[in-house]
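Chain A, query sequence.
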Amino acid sequence: MLNKNKPRGKLKHGLLTNTDTKLMSDKHTLVAEPLIQKLDSELQNNDLIAPHSIQQEAIHRYSNLFEFAPVAYFVIKPDSEIVTVNNPGASLFATDKAALIGRKLTEYICPSNQQAFIEALDLTFHNNQSTRVEVKLSHHSTPLWVNIELKPDTNEGQGLAGLIDVSSLKEHEVEMALISAVYNSLTEAVIVEDKNNIIINVNPSFTKLTGYQADEVIGQSSLFLRSNEEAPLFYEKMFEILNKTGKWEGEVSSTQKNGTSYIKWLSISSIYDQNNDISHRVSIFSDISEKKNAEALILKQANFDLLTGLPNRRLFNDRLSQGINKTARNHTKLALLSLDIDKFKEVNDSLGHCYGDKLLMEAAIRLTECIRDSDTLARLGGDEFSVIMSSLADISNVRQVISRVLETMAEPFPLNESIAYVTASIGIAIFPDDATTAEELINAADNAMYTAKREGRNCSHFFTPEMQSENSRKILLGNELRHVIAKEQLMMVYQPIVNLASGKVHKAEALVRWHHDELGDIPPIEFIHIAEDNGLIFPIGEWIFQHVAKQTLAWREQYCKNFKISINKSPAQFQKNNQHCSWLNYLENIGLAGDAIIVEITENLLMDSSKFTDQLLSTLNSSGLQIALDDFGTGYSSLAYLKKFHVDYLKIDQSFVKDCTNDYESEALCQAIIAMAHKLGIMVVAEGIETQAQADLLLAAGCDYGQGFLYSKALPAAQFQHLIDKDDTPLDNIA
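Chain A, predicted structure.
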């Protein structure tokens, strides 16, 4: 029987009253209050004094509630000593109850969280208030996070601790925090929108890129970010793909808040609900304007002459081929004008390259005004220009253009305080009358132009079948080339290649010279092409390779074990699939390592590469020989072959170097080439450095090496050695 004088609501065995054991059962709170209240009302009903058996049954029911509750319960003392624990509590600690009773709960809490738990105990027992604390238990191999709710029992000097495992929730919170951190730290702009294109969230990079604050766009349709530069059809196709595949990516023009246009790379992904309906879309984009500008600059350089802005040889060849094809289909005529500026070399030599460049730019303007809008004017190099006139019914228009060109080119060229007087020599060839292919037509126009020069310049000449004078010298030189090795008329000269950072000679470029007993000095630009045409490039190239290899070996033994010499190789030498064998065998025979030789090739070789070329380059590289890409920027300048082939050095053509200190585009192009090469792991050599200002600018841009008249012209071996000997520490010993 219950004692009526006993405080109501008190259970035997020192258990807590109903008011102190309010248990709640959501994610963070304990629940058993309804059951406790029911039990309490049964024990406190004065009108129904239960017999002892009923009282015991109630206590048993309460014990069951304590033992089998879904929450781990601990009855603890103020110092956290465990008085009793239920089954879930023992399971939580993976042990039996007897092992826990008498131990302190604090012992099972990670040291970093113990102080927080002790403070919670103090609030519970000294302030007589319920307290909640989140701690990490240390008894598990994997950290276990629990939420502990403490409730005091002041009558017994004990308290009830309910522990709920919140590890999964904690992991979720960590994951969410990480996701949030990543979201906010992304350099790409992110837009989250609902299925109706209404923006519901943006990240900080969105504001940085567009200029719009989050509160300015959230709740707005993302469609307002569209640019008028894109046609409506563009967006129709975009959403057609997006709705069909759930994603879309590509380049899009856009506008910032301040009105600045930019190009972005946009990627849109759709998020689907459980019914497979679109619930959200996530757009990620970045500003690629600088990249596009760099690509446009390289593309411009690949197709247009940097000095005059006219199409270069590559674009000229493409348009000539197209023009010939169109002319053949339409049964019309095409005229090719080959134009050379008379006495231009004298202007360059007397006034300097700066004035020569000014003349070329003015000449380009004048020539453009002389031709039709449908014609193509190209600068092929130096003072050489070409005009393509297609869709001609007769040649009357050609004669009119020639007359205007000769007249305007004969007018004085004001060059600051100086005045230059030049004229033009023009050769004309007609398709299909004079040639049936582009190459034949170019040769015919060139031959006609040389004839015009021989006839006194400042005139024009149409190609005729009898015009063989130009070929006569080629035949003569071709015959003489067959004996240059036997007559010992070839010699090698070496131009130092300097490490721009140290100022020391690091390498040398080997260049061939031909001195004929009767014809005098014949430049390589003239005889190399002849040697390529008649196959003599192979024995000449072999002589050059062996001569340079022996010289390299001697200088390595005399000066520096890492010294290297680069050799220019003709594209024709890569047409034989066994050419590399003799090179490698010779190096092995004389005991010279492959890394002593750098093979310089042109862009055209890579663009027109055959399987033999690919195999040869691969074999050379695997044998230790290094590859240098010569005159970069004057050919196709395609980035594809830089990825396909292993290139060790990229040589910036001197036409860009000479303008880099006074022309923004040349400077930007040099910087872009250097940066691109370094990104690809390629070292850079700048050719044609003539001033210290050029060297300083290139060094600041990160260029590795340089060569040019600033350091030395190409020298015979004896003079090159004298150049080395006169400096105490001239050689760079870097491998």
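The radius of gyration is 44 Å. Residues 295-467 form a domain with the Alpha-Beta Plaits fold (CATH 3.30.70.270).
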